[in-house]
Amino acid sequence: MSRIEQLKKDFSTTTIVFIAIAIVINIVVGQMVSLLKLPIFLDSIGTILVGVLAGPLAGGLTGLLTNLIWGIISSPVAAAFSPVAMVIGIVAGLCAKYGLFKTWWLAIVSGVIITVFNAIVAVPIRLYMFGGITGSGADFMTAYMLALGKDLFGSVIITVFTSNLLDKVFTAVLVWGIIKALPLRTTSRLSRADSTIA
Amino acid sequence: MPETHSTLFIPGDSRYHRLHPFNKLAYILLTGVTVYLGPGKSLAAACLIILNAGFAVEAAIFIPLWRVLWRTLLPLALYMGIIHGFFNPANHTVLISLGNMSVYQEGIQFTFTVVLQLSAVLSASLLFAFCTHPADLITAVSQAGWPPALAYLLGSPLLLLPAMRERARTIQAAQRARGLETHGRLSQRFRAVFPLITPLILGAIVEIEQRAIALEVRSFNIPGKKTSWRKVTDSVVQGFFRWGMVTVIIMIVTYRFIN
Amino acid sequence: MHCLEIDSLTFRYPTAQSPALKDISLTIRKGECVALIGANNSGKTTLCYALSGIVPLYYRGEFSGSVRVEGLETVNQTISSLSRHVGLVLQHPKHQLSGIRYTVFEEIAFGLENHGIPRDNILQCVTEALSLVGLSDAGECSPLELSGGQQQRLAIAAVLAASPDILVLDEPTTFLDPRGVQSIFELLANLKNKGKTIVFAEQKIEWIAEYADRIIALAGGEIILSGSPTEVLTSPILQKIGLDWSRYTKVADLARQRQLWPDSLPLPITFSEAVAGFSAKSPSDTCAD
Predict the structure, then answer these.
(1) Do residue B84 and residue A186 have CB atoms under 8 angstroms apart?
(2) Domain covering A3-196, topology
(3) pLDDT tens string C11-66
(4) Which residues from chain A sit within 8 angstroms of residue C15, using beta carbons?
(5) Do the Cβ atoms of A143 and B82 come within 8 Å?
(6) Which end of chain A is more exposed for a tag (fewer CB within 10 A), N or C?
(7) What CA–CA distance (Å, rounded) separates C21 from C41?
(8) Domain extent for B36
């Protein structure tokens, strides 16, 4: 298949609606989970779902647009992190492409990989735009490490990695489970390749 | 209108409201590039903040804008002030001594600069969000000849949101009625995640095909020129300013690269 | 003249074990109003999809036989080009909203904009479509503010804007309240009077009896019965395929066993037929007790 054809297939009307629905899922699930006061956010569950089923490009677009739309719904701060959300979708899509969503324990591995890339992109934004601060409890970790004499970059990267690890691993496993629960009829329409699902 | 609208948009008929959406977007970008990459960071940021305050007054959204701004920035500024004031690696000039800890000037200065930069970008972004009807953004995107998929992806989540929130509330109520514990111990709250979100997600995914069919029978995503009923006003002057802003953005970025 | 012709159509969805439609042959005349009935998974929806080209253009499964819409072979068309000949309305009113238009007027204009129709013509087409479905006063409302019945009429207006002569509706009243159901059936009768050909899948037997010219009963992807409303809706086969007679038919059937229903009349399918039958028989029989 040529690249253009693949692109067309990747962005069929069904895929586009899937992305739109996934954006809304990110927002609504994120709000639902925030009410439970857990150390996870699940606000990238739709992004990872699209990445796994519809490919890295579609996944990246889902993440990017989720945060831009968050920006006009509640707070523009979210829009600043849209590159991070985009990378989450892209990496999830690539993980799935290489078979890393076939079993629940491979999904855990994907979750870790996603966390690494999440940190790589999020840290510069945190540092240069927000002075390394998130405005959440995780900042105490940054403060503690700075007090131990670590530099700002190192402190923020460790904070971002650890505060996201549980969330991304949990999300990845949840996505694996959701795909398992979907009827074959639906997944076959939404996915671009059979290789992503076991 | 909380049920049909879910954005920060506040209706109005000011000049800022009537600006072409792309101009307002370009202005956000210009602000960001100026305060983070341009010369004279704090001063430029301070000037832009004053300018944005003026725009906000003109658009009659100063109070709501101010409210969002300080609610967002106050916690950030406090955390930042504490962390950098005490622990910033560049700290060496003591401002105040508190026992064996000290607040340093460098950290406070750093905080001050970052908060100024953020205020400038945030206020420009809020001006866009408060003064742009989402439909105008969608129309501008399709009138500019961008793919219909992009207009759809920018616009449809906003109108899908109320229905999905409604469904989330229904699921929450139903699961609580069945005895689901959403305020208990940590492990209970973790377990509450599954029954709350899986029905929501599965239900939303199953309706994708119907929505896609409904779009296809109305010729969404077909190639060829499209028309637009809704009109977004544009003018030569606005176009000139738009490209002017883009040019300045490119200039600042190149300046940064050279230095 | 036949405007819809199906010839030995068999279709299987890509991931399904067995075909959803088996060897369907069917012709529908211009101006006819045909109801499709059948239990869940009987093939009603798939038949609606086949008539509007969704099968096999959106669902590309195993397709054999032919479907012609106003002489056009659907396999060789696009969904978009077919939309000018046949309009498809789906079950759920909300799922048919474009999601990117903020007023009812713009929602209807959406399809026309995609076809690149000039603004003047859009104004004319949308105004006509609005008045046809009785939403002329709601043009500037948000689609999300409308009731279910109004949203479904909006969905009908949105496909009618492309001025197709045929309308296919897949269980359009499932999610509506009684008033909404009534408004949809009245609209269908009105559209039929304007010369539109209408095919609709429906579960509500009593309404079908009032409005359809012909009824086709499906089971297991095959046509089991086809004929006038009276023929189909009083057939004993109906119960075997998981459907039921209307309460009027059932009551009259019991009455007939007790000689309370005139033998000269067929079993009734509507309220007025039942009234007519019972009043023809009643005077002597009520005295006999």
Answers:
(1) no
(2) Arp2/3 complex 21 kDa subunit ARPC3 (1.10.1760)
(3) 999 889 999 999 999 999 999 999 999 999 999 999 999 999 999 999 999 999 99
(4) 184-185, 188
(5) yes
(6) N
(7) 10
(8) 15-132+232-258
